Model the fold of this input.
Amino acid sequence: MNGIDIGTGAIRAGTSVLYASLGELIAERAGVVNLGTEGCMLGGALGAFAVTVWSGNPWLGALAGGISGSVLALIHAFLVITRKANALASGLTVMFFAIGLTSFLGRGFVNKQIHGFEPISIPLLSKIPFLGPLLFQHDGLTYLSMLLVPTLWFLLFKTRLGVILRATGEREEVVYTYGFSPKWIRYGAVMAGGFLTGIGGAQLSTAYTHTWVENMTQGKGIVAVALVIFAAWKPARAMLGAYLFGGAQALQLVVQQQGYEISPFLLFMTPYVITLLALFLVARKQRSQMPEGLSKVFNGAGGG
Amino acid sequence: MSILLPVERRMGKPKWEVMLAPALVVLAPLLAFALFLLASGVNPITLYGTMLKSTFGDWYGFGEVVIKATPFILTALAASLPAKAGMINVGGEGQLAIGALAVTAVGVYLLPSVPGWIGVPILVLVGALGGALWASVAAIGKVKGKMNETITTLLLNYIAYFTIGFFVHSLLKDPASFNWPFSKELAGQLRLLTFSSASRVHVGIGIALILAAIVWFLITQTRLGFRIRVVGGNVLAAKRAGLKDTKIQFWVLIAAGAIAGIAGMIEITGIEGRLRPTTGMNYGYLGFLASWMAWNHPLWLIATSFIIGMISVAGNSLEMNSGLPASSVQILMALVLFAILAVGRRKQA
Amino acid sequence: MRKVGRKLALISSSLAFMFTFVACSSSTTSTTSPETTAAPSQAASAAAGTGGKAVGFIFVGAKDDYGYNQAAYIGSQAVEKAFPNLKVLRSENVPETAEAERVMEEMIRNGAKIIFPTSYGHLDPALNVAKRHPDVLFYHQGGLKTAENLGTYFGTIWEPVYLAGIAAGKMSKSGKLGYIVSVPIPQVLLNVNAFEMGAKSVNPSATTTVVFTGSWCDPAQQANAANSMIDQGIDVLSQHQDCTKTVIETAERRGALSVGYHAEASVLAPKGWITSSIWNWSDLYVDMVKTGVEGKFKGSKYDGKYRGQLKDNVVQLTSFGSQVPDDVKKLVDKSKAELVAGTLNPFNGPVKDQKGAVKIEAGAKLELDKLEATDYFVEGVIGSIPK
Done:
């Protein structure tokens, strides 16, 4: 076993989840939980794959993936913000809808080959021992996700836009005093979140696997939602969570290759168990950090 | 579907909306799906006709709808009861699976020669315990760790799936099945009774309907039900009124798990006869949808469970007759649900 | 509201009791499980499989998965072409549960007299339906249990997999081969064993490392596994998955060699393609349907457990990739000739498992049931099967 391999494996397996977590984080900061993340990811994965097939340009594909994610998120935004539907039920419905729709529309793409994103070794940096192979031999979307984390942090905590966004999820009155409508800010946040989540799906289909298969996200969107809580709504911790999940995937594969007598089924569940444990360990103290708008969804009257 | 809308809920809305909403909920998804069918080159009218015929055309078809609806009613109850207490349980999937696992293990290894009239009730309890056990992870997480039950129950579904895989590939594997991942078969007397040899319908539907009636009675007619609804309506108000909201929520979640576990028991003893890696897959999610389609009303959800059962059964004929892939059924279901969510939030029942 | 609710509660509970009552009263006449109740009603006047309007095919996954289901789907297309009077009914993503029974019943209601359940888990449901419908003929893919009107068929895919193992063992520089598989079922374990035996026959120190993904088609997990194995120094990857594209493409992009499965996919790996083991169901399906339609199932070679071999062309090894050297091709062709002639059989004893325990005694004859119930890895395989 080798630390670099597990580390790179963690980044490879975790990047799509990272995008989805960051997307969800934006929406939740504005006070809207979107369980449709799984659906937005699937939409993004198919949209990106299809456009890459047609155009031959993966960047165009990623853009389309983002837009697909946004469109699916828009359904959720409409139901939750305008029609005041229960956010969790609406998110799940978006998830089911997207699973059905993408398997339907995606049939023709299962056999298609694409020229997707390829790993790029960054000159000089990739030669650094340990860090080089770990961080500097990835595809474009992975580098972008690494840059996105500090960017998002800056936007959220150091700009006026960020203040307004966070206020939307905490104290609506403040937003009004700035002269904005919390409603449209929420719409914007949910769609921006859907866009990033869609890019997460795009990373999966056009960068990591170069494949489209129905239901290929296999619960990654749901893990992403869980990781946002783990992350205490902070981008850097979302990154940590995503790589932790990816790392658990990579580690279980390495363990299998050693031939230890452990049932693979116990190994398969470890990433989910670890996510659950991580949630348990941090959830208690994090209540105070939860955007207030969310606690209505998470603790309030969910029944109608 | 219009008759499915409880009268009371129409109050306090403008008149046109009272009239329009139920019609919209029925017609909009069917129309939208018809457009979708037309776009895929399928005649929606003949297709809807075939779907109706395959489900209500003869007793066999209707029997299949009943069999499908049975677990949906139970997993829907497992979503509706917590919803009344302000919680969202998406874990019916995993709770059903663990219930089925417990029933198989006990049924195959402890009760192979126990007469049915003792064995079957024991298995109902075992299934309920299995489901309750799985739900208790989420319940404890909620009470002790303040973890949101939606997220935990969802994650637990994946863990349950791999748990089943673990057991059917090892301890429960049937030696007579040539090393394939199935459990041994349950003894004949432990199987649920069927009504005739022409159909697979079994007494499970009776259990499901009784449980639905019990949950309805509990929620609407008892003091405990009132408390549950108060907790669900407003946690803060419940606290001020001196109700122990966490305790109530804890036990409601456990009860929900038990109901889903019974669904697993029925699936094993009524239909499958043995545990397979994918036994009962998606029943939890579909039941959840059935519950939300019925605004979490424990009796209306019987109707919506039947509708989802019908759509799933008709889905087979849809696929064979139109050449459309199985996924189109999911699209139809999601459209129905969108319409319901768009019509708006309802008053608590 | 209350009134409506009460009424509903009353209706539903009385319905429930009615059901229970009917069930109890009828339980004296009917027995407990559907399998035992459905005795073959009247002696079928016509042979099973004749006089149908349709032929049904049931797939466990998506029919265009570039893999197992697609191979069967292509076979169903050949049936469609050969029998223009028969409608071909298809149902995909049919779970391996009692759910499959309903799909088969629906096919019968749509006029099918011959049904192909193409996945192992469809066997028990098919046996149940076969009991209820003695006039319908079932051809089950891969099963080991049969009935009056249910025959099973399969291909000895381990033969081409063994040959591919020879090529892989020759081509690997590190002697470390990788096999990315779904779940530990006998078909999977048998293939891994055959592959390792093939590799070992040309390179005694060759090892085959196994990774389970837990799913028949999860591209992300396949990519994780492929990358992880290549990181560990494995330079030839094969697989047993339903969808096969991702592993081949990932290996190609990382500069590793590929051995395919289910489908000829050299186009996915112009640099690293070695060869692939594939199914050729078309001629077999057509012949089986013909046998059934003509009422000749009883006593035919399909009445029982039919296994198509390399020599029957039911399983095949595809052509080699461009960079496979001639000496490797020759070596494979020589073993292929021996397999076809019956002079070579890797599973003739002694065969030892990972721990050195003898699994097939020296001189023991090959038994189909035992081979297709494999629950061990042979020596040289690195990996663990849940016990």
User: Anything to note?
Assistant: Chain B is about 70% helix and 0% strand. Confidence is low (pLDDT under 50) at residues 1-11 of chain B.
